Amino acid sequence: MKLGIHAYAWCSQWSNETLNLIDRAQQLSLDFIELPLLCPETFDAAAVRRRLEALDYEAVTSTVLTADTDLTSAQPKIRAQGVAYLKDCVRMTQEIGATSLSGVIYSQHVKPANRRPAPQEWEWAAEGLREVADYALEAGVTVGLEPVNRYETYLVNTCEQALRLRDMIGRPNVRLHLDTYHMNIEEKSFYEATKLAGNALVHYHLCENDRGIPGTGLVDWDGIFRALAEIGYQGYAALESFVDCTDNMQTWVWRQLAPSGDDLVREGLAFVRDMQARYGL
């Protein structure tokens, strides 16, 4: 299993001023860094690639859709904008030399919904992602669907639902991206959900139930790592915890969850590495 960290553990927006975080992740003996593509205007792919190549280091990318790029919108123009945006994300992923893009890429993140999604909205999401996946396949990029909790999406909350959407898309480079923070709300069992993902799993966010330091809360880490060991998981797993609010993605960090980003990273990584060693990952 490749262990990494999301850049938002240290910063609230990616830019050339945060390129040093790539160096910091490598200094922590991590295998990769996860880079957010939420603000394309501040993401300099050429500069990122130069830094990664200079360090011989690896990255993955992630993003979310907004009201202007919602693949489940009833407006064809907005759905087309969503496809175009995700293709841009695929292009940026390829340009930095990465091969994995994932996130809330099927519907608007925190969409104001007051009903369950209609079958047509599932079809719109699948149709848009099918086009994106075809584009990504040519670019050598895998696309990961991340189920998130009911307060952040009305469409894909569980591993089972993500597998359903993956089957509807019907492309070999569409995989799953699980996140323990969201699983804590939506899944009946961390172990069973992880096992269900099986070889479709491409990325895993390691978060505590309050987004604080892993190992300090309610998440069933033994169940998770037991399942990861049983499926022989060799993909990406990133520490994704936050110590601050962001202007570009709602993180809802209204109190201090760790003394600092460095404390969160140091203690969280120590815990996760201990779990890796315990389960042979």
Provide an overview of this structure.
It is a single chain. With 281 residues, this protein is α/β, with parallel strands linked by helices. It has one domain: Divalent-metal-dependent TIM barrel enzymes (TIM Barrel, Alpha-Beta Barrel), CATH 3.20.20.150. Helix content is 41%, strand content 17%. It has helices spanning 20-27, 45-55, 76-95, 119-139, 159-169, 180-186, 190-197, 221-230, 261-279, and strands at 2-6, 32-36, 58-65, 100-108, 142-145, 174-179, 201-206, 236-239. An 8-stranded parallel β-barrel has the order 1-2-3-4-5-6-7-8, surrounded by 6 helices. Helix 3 links the parallel strand 3 (58-65) and strand 4 (100-108). Helix 4 (119-139) packs across helix 5. The longest helix has 21 residues, at 119-139. The chain is globular, with a radius of gyration of 17 Å. It starts with a strand and ends with a helix.
Structural class: alpha/beta
* Radius of gyration based on Cα positions: 17 Å
Count every beta strand, where a strand is a DSSP E run of 2 or more residues. Answer: 8
CATH class label: Alpha Beta
| Reported CATH architecture | Alpha-Beta Barrel
Q: Please identify which CATH superfamily we are dealing with.
A: Divalent-metal-dependent TIM barrel enzymes
**Mind summarizing the main beta sheet?**
8 strands, parallel, barrel
Strand content: 15-25%
How many distinct domains?
1
